[in-house]
Amino acid sequence: MSEIQNKLKEKIQEAETIRKIQSYTVQLQSRLTEEENALAVMEQTLAKEQRDVELLEKEGLTTMFHKFLGDREDRLQIERQEYLTAALKYNEIYKSVDLIRYELNLLSKKEQNLGNVEKEITGLIKQREAEIMQLEPTIAAQLQGLHEQVDKLHKFETEVNQALSTGNDAFDKVRKTEYYLNEAQFPDKHMWGSGYQSKIVNHQAVDYARDMAYQSRQSLIRFGNEYRDVYPERPFQINMELEDFGRFAEVFFNNLISDWILRQKVSKSLITVRGTVQQVGRFVEQLNQEKLTIVRKLQELEMERKRTIVSSE
Questions:
Q1: All domains of the chain, ordered by start, with CATH?
Q2: Residue 98, class by beta-carbon neighbours within 10 Å (0-12 exposed, 13-18 middle, 19+ buried)?
Q3: pLDDT tens profile 146-200
Q4: Which residues pair with 238 in a beta bridge?
């Protein structure tokens, strides 16, 4: 076993020890919270018991004439005993809190070393990998195969990220189109004034929806191209072909300009756009799931690479 490999295994063991410390630290933090809460309660209890004792001790002669002296002494003894019990419990919890804080302080210093240890491990893995590439052809071939898989996944990840970016942009624009169509059909109540005023509000909403529809068309075209780069074999359909969506924007809304008050036309468009929102959302979710799969596969390949390097003799 080479010197680099020995150091690598030592550092991996050290990192594992620190991770166990982190797990224990979480438990200690939970215990500390519980103990500090109990301490706060006991502080209030102790203060109350002390006030009870002081109150009895300060009772004057007039009060004594109205009570039996023995009864007062008995009560005072009981209050002092309760105060002593509370004080002992308080001290016990205080010491526990103090010890937990001390232990956490020691452990936190060890936890801080994890980052440095992991950097050392990364450097040693690279050194050991270079060593293997020169001395062990069989394992070198395995590692080369893993590197090729990682490179392929990274390229695919780039395509997925690009498709996600354009998909999210298209989704946002189609949702805005839906919003403005909805505004055209159901304007806010406070906007309803005279008939003339209500027409202006609806007209503006239709104009906004038309403009957003043009933008949506361009974004959907870009999204379709990016989606097909990721999934060449899968169909990309959103209610109608993209060219039809263009005619929807250009022809339908031109008719609306001359006859926009006919709300049934707005309603029909709204149904179409809502369907588009759902379809685009499904495509985007597919890409999000694909991205998660890529991340998981990359992690698995990295773990396999490290296992191959560390276990090689």
A1: 3-135 (1.10.287), 139-311 (1.20.120)
A2: exposed
A3: 888 888 888 888 889 999 999 999 999 999 988 888 887 765 544 444 444 444 3
A4: 240
Return d(Cα 290, Cα 222) in angstroms, integer.
Answer: 19
- CA Rg value for the chain: 37
Q: Containing H/E element for 260?
A: none
DSSP 189: G
Phi/psi of residue 121, each to 5°? -60, -45
| Distance in angstroms (rounded) separating the CA atoms of residues 74 and 79 | 9
Q: In whole angstroms, give the CA distance from residue 232 to residue 225.
A: 10
CA-CA distance, 268 to 100, in Å (whole number)? 67
Give the predicted TM-score (pTM) of the model.
Answer: 0.53
What are 57-61's contacts with CB under 8 Å, separation 24+?
Answer: none
What's the token pair of residue 303? 């773990």
Non-local (6+) Cβ contacts of 29 within 8 A are: 104
